[in-house]
Amino acid sequence: MDYKETIRDFIVENFLFGESDRLKDDTSFLDTAIIDSTGILELIAFLEETFDVSIEDTEMLPENFDSLNNISLYLSKKRDS
Amino acid sequence: MKICNNCVLPETFPGIVFDDHGVCNYCRRHGLVSDEKRTSQKSRYEGKCTLIIEKLKNKNPYDALMAFSGGKDSTYTLQYLVEKFGLRVLAFTFDHGFLSPMAKENMLNVTRELGVDHIYFLSNPKAINRAFKSSVEEDAYPVKALERASAICNTCMHVAKSLILKTAIEQRIQVIAYGWSPGQAPVQSSVMRLNASMMEKTQGMMIESLSKVMGNDLAPYVLADSHLDILREADGEEYGFYNVHPLAFLEYDEEKILESISRLGWEPPRDTDANSSNCLLNTFANQVHLDRYGFHPYAMENAGLVRDGHLDRDEALERLQQPMDQSLSAAIKQTLDIP
After folding, report:
1. A with B: how many residue pairs have Cβ under 8 Å apart?
2. Could you tell me if the ipTM is greater than 0.85?
């Protein structure tokens, strides 16, 4: 399943307000200030609701949620496990 | 100005789109989640919070650190932790120099009545005021962050949260409690385990933004490597450090909250604006935000409270339309050296 487009749409609509050019697959949300620390929590809430996954405390790491690539990889692994 | 027929978000709010019934996209998205699911989510997070609190109780000299602003929500959260769980709580207040005198009096009454220790941190006014001034004059935050709070509030929260975490790590207090209202933060973030890599990353952003204006004066507020090492060690333990904000899953009824905390000697301040029960800077911060972005920085919080049925829509509109105290704003501008 390709998660990226759904997540990209959410971020463009909710964090970038339509400015999709700023978001590449490997863009770091935190380094580029697209999403701040509170925004990451909103993103995680969206992922849990949309993809029906339960994200564990110990999984809330930048390496899992700081870019479209990272999230996609994380969700794929999560679904496979 | 067009305002959502269901909540209180105005047409100037970022990314807002109205349907044919005048209802905004934020309300429509909220409507996708059933009441049953919301109730079940709240129960799940309340259970998780209770488990963590019970597991960590009596492990260290203090069971929890309460980010205690003296406002009604943090006061009620403090009362909840002490009276429901019998926790030994250390209350921690970050005074940015603009706490209302009535809020300070409330703090004294509440900590005395509950019997808790209290650290009151009064910040260096020269340094913090430079940060506030810069928040007004520069575009320091992404639009998303400004949806939730004014630039001044964002600056204050960044500094306060960092200092609070630093204190909790130093005191080895593993539960850090905040009094965020249900409109300020979602229930999914109400129990969050903190980890070193996320803290390091988010702190880096804060340092980059604030060190330009605070210079070396920022150092006392940020985590050192030794603090991050302690967090890293805790990453490997079954229970680490947690941020919790219980009001996201508890019943949130302002009348009941006010009634409950009045037993502790807490009185509604008469020296603050309608959206704050502790801060004198808020009026000015709101005015700057409204002038610059065209929407009230409390619109999102109030809209969330209305959607969840915690606040009457007319009451929310009244709060958002309350005139600002111009004389107070002028005094704040002078203090911050803003022309």
Report:
1. 69
2. no
Distance between B147 CA and the closest CA of chain A, angstroms = 10
Q: How many CB atoms lie within 10 A of CB B334?
A: 9
Candidate from A31, A34, A45 with C-beta closest to B189: A45
CA dihedral A27, A30, A35, A39 (to 10 degrees): 130
Q: How confident is the model over B21-69, as pLDDT tens digits?
A: 999 999 998 998 889 989 998 999 999 999 999 999 999 999 999 999 9
pLDDT tens digits for range B287-336? 999 999 999 999 999 999 999 999 999 999 999 998 888 888 899 999 99
Q: How far is A8 from chain B (nearest CA, A)?
A: 15
Q: Whole-angstrom Cα distance, residue A34 to residue A11?
A: 9
Judged by phi (left if over 0) then psi (alpha if -120 to 50, else beta), residue B70 lies in left
Of B143, B186, B197, the CB nearest to A41: B186
Q: Under an 8 A CB cutoff, do B197 and A44 touch?
A: no
- What is this structure's pTM? 0.92
Radius of gyration of chain B (CA): 20
How far is the C-alpha of B249 from the C-alpha of B199, rounded, in Å?
25
